[in-house]
Amino acid sequence: MLMDNSATFHDVDVLSIMEASFDGLMLCDAYGKTVFVNSAAERIMGIMGSEFVGHDSIELQRSGVITHATSMETLRTGKPFTVLQTYKNGNTALVSSNVVYQAGQKAYVIINIRDVTVLPDLPMSRGGNTKDTPAICNSQELKKVFEIVRMVARTEATVLLMGETGVGKDVVARRLHVLSSRVDKPFVKVNCGTLPEHLIESELFGYDSGAFTGAVRGGKAGLVECADKGTLFLDEIAELPMALQPKLLELLQDFKFNRVGSTTKRSADIRVIASTNKDLVSQVEKGLFRADLYYRLNVIPIEIPPLRQRADDIIPLVENYLRVFNQKYQVQKRIDRETYPLLVSYAWPGNIRELENTIERLVVTTCRDTISRADLPNCLVRNMNCLHTEDLKQTDLKSAVHGYEKELISQYLGLGYSTEKIGQLLGVSQPTVSRKLARYFPVVPGTNLRER
Predict the structure, then answer these.
(1) Pairing mode, if any, of strands 24-29 and 105-115?
(2) Same domain, yes or no, for 276 and 357?
(3) Number of independent structural domains in the chain
(4) Count of CB atoms within 10 A of residue 276's CB?
(5) Residue 9 is part of a domain; what is its CATH number?
(6) pTM across the whole model
(7) What Rg value do the Cα atoms of the chain yield, rounded?
């Protein structure tokens, strides 16, 4: 919480209430100067409150910190004002300002700041996830990503998002949509890896009456039609069956398609974003992905770096999820200072998703109010994200590789992942993981993981 010492309030409890809000709150005086910024606002904006306190929104707009002078607009009109605010780091928030009157005079402007990536009622959003990671953007690596996002969002170019599992591709896709001219239209997510192969065509493109046994009379619109005038997000695009890839290619080339069982061409007014955690060039070389489809998708490629390359984002993410789960479970847990270095130096192979799950686990299972090193999972305490120099001197390459393999699998076992999930994360088959489990962990007490 940051407050201007010159500000006076009749009831200091009001500040405590504002600080406890999960939504961001700012307070400006009758001249539009910022006098208070709560911690949630700093989290959502990704900017410290010190950059706002003492400045009015006109100054902040001119210096490029914000795009809209909300407090001054509200003071000018005396009416509530709502706008999609973009900050200097690329973060975006839904900002609403309103006048607070005292004795019939304008005394303050209160500004409510909501993160658009976690709004459950984002206009006409389908397949949304209210647990989307807020776009915390402290690292230079991620700032570069969001600079590209800002440049391409208002175009109609197809975007291909690439990165490991759990790096936040969904969040970047939604940010592209929110910053586009299609923001008030549907954002439709299609996970190509979860839809059964025999259903994906009808789910994606819809079907006409009588197209197959069990088809709904009158037919059914597919997800492409549901995304009309909006954005179609094709997640895990590498999992799209080869037989369906020519139909997607036609959609990308001509924005035309036909429902299953129909010969009538339909038009689609959509913006396409795709994502993958696989090397599509390698998939093309192996004959698992069409080269022409790859080139159609790869118009604007955006590589999202893994968390281990964005150390500056780790502590803000930890603090964000600590607030989220403290609120969810109605507790007030904190992390002691000695524990933070372990969190920062850990490689986070599961990226943001692993970090989120780890913080929730710590909030739920730690008996004391302060989370210490002793409460961390073994994989963080050992911190074997890379082999120490001394260890390398005392072992051969084969033993070193086996040791690192064992450590990675141990980390995922500690998170409760099945052998199938571990295989997906490591890029190997489930039987391969089972064989390595049998080699490294002949007996896994209290579990039956090898059969899962």
Answers:
(1) antiparallel
(2) no
(3) 4
(4) 24
(5) 3.30.450.20
(6) 0.57
(7) 25
What CATH number corresponds to the domain at position 228? 3.40.50.300
Residue 370's domain spans which residues? 310-382
Q: Residues 330, 214: one domain?
A: no
- CA-based nearest residue to 425, from 317, 358, 353: 353
| 256 within a domain of the structure (yes/no) | yes
Q: Of the candidates 8, 5, 36, which has an alpha carbon nearest to the alpha carbon of residue 113?
A: 36
Degrees, nearest 5: CA angle 183-165-317: 70
Strand order in the sheet with 34-37: 2-3, 34-37, 24-29, 105-115, 92-102, 81-86
Low-confidence spans in the chain with pLDDT less than 70: 1-13, 115-135, 209-219, 382-404, 407-408, 410-417, 425, 440-452
Indicate the helix (H) or strand (E) that contains 81.
strand 81-86
Residues 160 and 199 reside in one and the same domain: yes
| DSSP at 220 | B
Torsion angles phi and psi, residue 46, rounded to 5: 70, 20
Which residue in the block uniquely carries the two structure tokens 């990671």?
A: 133
pLDDT in tens, 243-255: 899 999 999 998 9
